[in-house]
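Next up, sample data.

:::
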Amino acid sequence: MAKPSGFSLEAFYELSLVRRAVSPLYNIYKEDVMKENNLVITPGQMSEFWRQVNIRQIGRDYFQDFLDHRLFRSNPFLRRISDKPLNIKATEGKRIIAEAKDIFPGGTDSDFRRYGADEAGSAKSETPVVVYEVIRDGKHRQFFGSIGDIEELCFTQDQIICFVETHREWLLTDGMGTFFLFRSKKTKFKKDLWGEFFVASVLVNHNGVSAFVDRFGNSYDWGAAGRHRLVVPQHAS
């Protein structure tokens, strides 16, 4: 089934963020993408899109592809680099990064404690994961937001520790970060929009493996030249 008439490819792709805009977590991501790509969607285009959905000119299967970004544009910020199955074994959820001194001999960021980003998680079954490489400068919220639902991209800290234990060959060396998204309801930033969401940055250098933490909503731009990596659950990517 063809795409709705009267839509540019860019505008039609941008409309795929409609699903995300339902949640306030995605409003700023949506604005970032439109600003970065100079996209403008008129009220008339939006109205025409929903009209064609309602009269079923856009079928169920095509609409799902549309929502999942499969038809229009590859990810502007990331490229997938893992081409073989990677799994995190089942975990109990009890371990936290701030206490995993044996796993991170290079040290752990004191901000895990200071931010309240040191909450244990629940038990998880074996989880398949995907590794991406950053190909365009951007913020954490743009990188992770370009993949899918933020809540579905989160690991427990025990899962992050397990990945570091079993898949060290996938961690960047030379001090560049490998990023993992996680959530902590112990956060000291409960009033902030993304206050419960954090990014663990795992680094490998001459001091060994170390872990740092950033607030998900910070405004820092990470350069593509660093070839930073993201690890996310496969079911959410």
Q: What stands out?
A: The longest strand covers residues 197-205. Residues 78-236 form one domain. Residues 1-14, 16-41, 68-73 have pLDDT under 50 and may be disordered. The chain has two domains: 9-67, 78-236.
